Amino acid sequence: MVRFKNRWIAVEIVWRDVSPPLSNTVLLDALKQSIQVNFGDLGFAKNILPLRLLYLNTETNLAIFRCVRSQAQEVWAALTFITNIQGKPVHLRVVHVGGTTKSTHEFAIRHLALWLKNAQLRLAEQTHLPPTRVCALQESLETQFQTAVKQVDAVEL
Question: Which among 69, 73, 134, 154 has the fewest CB atoms less than 10 Å away?
């Protein structure tokens, strides 16, 4: 019996302006359109069924896709070619390609921890805020981090 071999691609979404509300279907449709434009009907047909968006967090701007191993480079290229979503300029940066669910899960947790650290550093730089407000914002960041980790743990990668 032949086993299906997949790749998990973690993508950081970098908005050039304010980020619009983003849903799973909008991001997946943008990727499918990019595959259609850049690789034609054959590339679209090879990628359409096995391609899945497994995780999307609009707070941390992290998305995880699953695709067939043989098509991973095409999916990566199509992600790179996306320059706008819903008319808003965007840059999709592939930050991890994993061959196992475990490696992708571990990366997602590390990425979320780095996001939390950077958010706390940006918050600490804002000296004009009263200490009580800073404390409340840090608690909010911790809550968002814990929620995001729980979401990653719940995803069947």
Answer: 154
